[in-house]
Queue: 2 jobs
Job 1
Amino acid sequence: MKLTEENFKIDYMAAIHATTARQLEDTSSLERYNALGQMIKDYIGSLWANTNASYRADGVKQVYYFSMEFLTGKFLENNLHYLGIYDVTRKGLRALNIDLEDLIEVEMDQGLGNGGLGRLAACFLDAMSSISIPGHGCGIRYKNGLFEQKIIDGNQVEFPDRWLVNNNVWEYKRPNKAVEIRFNGHVETYMEEDRLCFKHVGYDAVRAVPYDTPILGYENNTVNTLRLWSAEEIEDIFDFEYFSKGNYLSAFEKKHSVEIITQILYPNDAYDEGKLLRLKQEYFFVSAGIQSIITTFKKLNLPMTEFSDRVAIHINDTHPALAVPELMRILVDEERLDWDTAWRITTNCISYTNHTIMAEALEKWPLYMMKDLLPRVTMVIEEINRRFIDTLKNIHQYTDENKIHQMAIINDGIVKMAHLAIVGSHSINGVAELHTEILKTRELKDFHNIYPTKFNNKTNGIMHRHWLLNANPRLTDLIEDTIGDGFKKNPIVLRDLLKYREDKAFLDKLYEIKHQNKEDLAKFIKDKLDISVDPYSIFDMQAKRIHEYKRQHMNILHVMHLYNQLKENPNLDMPPRTFIFAGKSAPSYYVAKQIIKLINTVGHVINNDKTIKNKLKVVFLPNYGVSLAGRMIPAADVSEQISTASKEASGTGNMKFMMNGAVTLATLDGANIEIRKEVGENNIVIFGLRDKDVYDYYKNGNYNAFEVYNADPALKKVIDQLINSFLPVPKDEFIPIVDRLLRFNDEYFVLKDFEDYRDAQERIGLYYRNKPHWMKMSLTNIACSGAFSADYTIDKYASGIWHVNRKSLDFKL
Ligand code: 26V
């Protein structure tokens, strides 16, 4: 949009007065930020209205991305860039003696997600808008996002994330679009003419109120919607009966029991606890979302049979899989379609992404619980299951009762959400090539046999405009000066940088930028943790959720090994290294919390040991989230992607690090394999077991962790150090970790991969010392990272799964 500095100042002063009723000099940073946000929201308003009007006028097919999580982070900086008014805003504010950077800092992260799955949803929203796809998000407006992590005495301690305390300037509450959600009660059947009908009665009703946030496209006038639902009590719940009996407090208890539905995001990211409240959350937002889609569709005055020509519903993992029976329920019970027509519409609409093969993350609900909470929806699932089993027997001629039992949506009193999602959708995709292969040939093999064409791969992608342009302005400027700004809209052209592989002057500039970013991070670490780190050392980072399969403990055991070597020989010729960790553990995941404690304990010992001459440092940065990632990633030299092969579905951190010039140290897992393909094997460091080895070990039961431990003295030494008072903690502190590695035979092959990892780390050291060589590797990673932009991923979803077209909008603000 066009905005002069003069007009900016006029609008901004008006916003200050309107939102604060104070003179500028009397306002706080928060008030200044809110005023700016409000002003930007006003600018966005007409673009948003125009976008929706044009979607409706043309009746275009629209995508609804259903996700329990949207980890969007901050909006201000991005919105300014996308509107093309970042520079004028900065100058205008400067003239008023305000630093834009300070206001950007004030914004709280919208942390409504756990990790990869939630951040992917946020990157996808951006990409849908930026490549002009009519696509919206549908989710939950949790009052508390993912907990804030503090490290106290080396332990993770959780605090509530009250992201709404200062008011969220980007959202619009739309009470007029509230819908009713019905829980519990029972179902009555009756005949209407010769149709069997169902009526849900005696239910508890809850009001779902939408809050809409605009999702801007990059300089293309498109504004899609992220609609998050919040639970409120329905008026009649505020029971007059209670009042009349003078039972005022009970009325509030009931109100509280409703509002609790959207109070908190579950903080587990790979462990399903099967809690009733979580099931309530799932149905709550799915039902609300589908009701509102149907209302929008009806404005087109088309027959219901055309629903799937205008609507695509995507379910992000199985968490919104109730979309299948809920859409069926509405089409059959309320729209009075016959079952087969409703089923055709439903399966044509719905598509599903699988994000994990970890058995403990697969959602399963006890049938009795579901029946109690959702009596009619459960009947629908039972009918879907009955028909599915019929198909297996009659169409696919299955006679093996055992197999039929395993594939059923409901068996042994359990509802399997993945099976429901697979049966009820026309597309099932994995998130990286290897992951999709594993789904097809192993984990979901039986379903792939009967539905071979439903399965497809869509390798994840990241929002390059955030992870490069916003996070790393120095690098962005250098790239722009070198190859122009085409990469902002078409990131594959980053490949043009490959021409500069032998250009010393360019590589020097690249080195200088990395160094400045490292200086910035070193300062941040000093301020936050009072640890001095050497910006000339290798910044080696592992930043992601803490989980045994991601193997942060292998990393820290290797750090202990380096320390042991330095203690034996303080003059050891080793490039100085700083190991930086960040990530949250699920609050109830004891071993993961012990891994955090171990990292901090080792860090304490090493960082305070003067004899090793600052050659080694260990830092654990607390409260990893979108903002911290933005500070860390531009300063990384080495990106640790060391999961047990086959376990990490894709990873997206791996893509963010490479885009910022880090060299990946990786197993052949998830998207690491595709990164290797892009950059070539000389520009990535690979080690460890392959997925096939892992499956073979599991199958044959021939892995013996004790043997590996006994055969490798260096490894034995570090494991023993966990429990022999070498570390300043009670002797039994780390027994649970050692037990997992030895007594329970090391499920994730930490010991098995240790030697190979050590060698790979040695190679990293050698490459790093050869500066021109290292900078060439770094450059190659940046140049090849464009292939992982979410813009391309979303383009493939749009053409291959959703069958929606791009919709260019040419009105101007
Ligand atoms: C599962 C569960 C289980 C029930 C309780 C709450 C909860 C919350 C989240 C999840 C999802 C775990 C799956 C996940 O996050 N997968 C990650 O998805 C990324 C995006 O596709 C991918 O890059 C990571 O490799 C994958 O681990």
Note: The pocket of 26V is lined by residues 114-117, 120, 266, 268-270, 272, 317, 355-356, 361, 363, 431, 460, 648-652, 670 (CB under 6 Å).
Job 2
Amino acid sequence: MTATELVGLTAAEAIGRIRAGELEPAELWSAYQQRAQADDLNAYTWVADADAPAADPAAPLAGVPVAVKDLFCTEGIPSQAGSRILENYCPPYTATAIQNIYDAGAPLLAKTNQDEFAMGSSNENSAYGPVLNPWDRARVPGGSSGGSAAAVAAGLAPWATGTDTGGSIRQPAALCGIVGFKPTYGAISRYGMIAFASSLDQAGTFTRDVTDAALLLEAMVGKDPYDSTCLGLPEPVQPPTATDLRGVRLGVPEELSGEGIEPGVLAAFERTLDIARDLGATVESTHLPHAAHGLSAYYLIAPAECSSNLARFDGVRYGMRVDDGGGLLDMYTGTRAAGFGDEVKRRIMLGTYALSSGYYDAYYGRAQKVRTKISEDFESAFSAFDFLVTPTSPGVAFELGAKSDDPLAMYFNDFCTVPMSLAGIPALSIPNGTAQAPGGSSTELPTGFQIAGPAFSENKLLNAAYALETALAFDSSPAREAS
Ligand code: GLN
């Protein structure tokens, strides 16, 4: 097989060939390692330089290599979370989610670039530079897991891990034309995941297709004595097989599928609803009355939690230290001033303010009440529908720099994904076509279709996504061929 043919295989196809003795894991490793080392999208912050590690073809992941978002701790390997303050930080242990992947037989190929501490929607907040979208290098890949999304879309990795606090798996997956899955909060351990907002942070997968998502997810999930909020999943994740959507009731929340969504994205969304109907689903519009307040609640809760989580970066325990002899307080402030980027500082200030005495009830307390209302909205919607569907991102990939000076425009990217994060429910994005960028550009760019289900509905969700994916037959090869 040529290297191009090799990287054209999905992970599941590669595993099948390895098991059949038609492909050596070492061959696959070398093909990906070469592409990863030649990465010109800035998708990677570290690439393995070792020869192919020993692989066990009988292991669940059979030696198919994985790329890992940089905020997962990997023992002895830089884990910088996109921040200057963690430059060259090599943790003494590996995150449970990643250790689970190693134990399932997948070796680490590379660490992926990301927005600093996962704060961002374009990957432009990385201290290690922006990542380019393989569909159009003048555009962003989305964020915060932009490196993972770009790497998988461009065929620089068979699959990758990511984290999603408000949309950071689903939105970049949509902008790069691949599948991104954020499971139920607590399905995967957060131990060793550098924290942003602990009540929202959720690990998940970037894959070429839904079958690969099920495989990688099954490797990552599981209870963990090191994370008391981690439950695992009630049943093993099964390879999806559904060929139709008969009997499946899809709800379209009006609040998340109209105003503010680009016309091209809406048109693709409508076409996908038609396909769902053809497959036998019923599609009805519904309401999530508080969903429109999701962003406001999120941008209080997430900064509040981050202001507390990021207090640990003080120049004493991790990463960089700026000490010009002025004493302890100067060392703290000097380190944090030099080590954090603008967006991270903005959030620490917002969060500290929202938690301060006198404002706590008005801001943080109220945001928590809105969060509860949003969860209740979902609960009542799921009494009438199996899944809720929306466009994943309000727009296609935008040009680098287009939203950098406007934090609110940047925050709006997560309008459709944040409510599911606040409710802790599983949601997945599949590529459902292309649309032209607004403003008369002729470039066709991928769009994403989001499917959200009740907590712990992973297997049903994957099956519904699989049936749709098969009918959509989205062609992801242009992004690989351009790379
Ligand atoms: N874009 C959102 C933010 O900046 C979500 C990020 C994420 O999910 N990590 O907070």
Note: The first helix runs from residue 3 to 8.
